[in-house]
Please model this.
Amino acid sequence: MKTKNVLLGSALALMIGMASCNSTSNNEDAKETAEAINDSTINSTASTDSTANAQEDDAEAVVEIASGGMMEVELAKIAVEKATSSQVKSFAKMLVTDHTKANEELKALATSKNITLPSSLSDKHQKMLNDISEESGKKFDKEYMNMMVKDHKDDIDKFQKIADKGNDAEIKAFASKTLPVLIHHREEAEKIEKMTDKM
Model:
């Protein structure tokens, strides 16, 4: 009888021990699962934040180049009227045509990406337009062409950055497609600038 009780006690102790091990194992499994879910949530949140930041960067770049494009069209229209040089007038007409087309493409692209473009020029671009518009005669031609050389160099840098490092494939494609046009404008502006400097 004593032996039977000892055996029964041992069996119970063994079962309790096994249950305890199993419970510890289950707790560890549950802990690992919770940690995995937590890591996944953190990674998902980080990924969402990263995507939101990338979209915001693209939107800011699009808004900036849209304002610049509007300014170039508005100023080119003034140059068509005010310039004394036929070369400056021809250059300004080319800008009205090319930048109006690019601005319309950019507007359609922005709409498809839910990016709201400005309806008026930024303060910086408005000041540039006002400063040049105040000039007249040969001084207008010279100041306008100087500005167009500098402005197109800036444009090329911005568009190149978007084409190389932009996050959205369609915005990058637009920048890449527009770059050769901007380079052509800069080259023409540099030629005409040299002529106006001699005037």
Remarks:
- Residues 2-82 form the longest helix (81 residues).
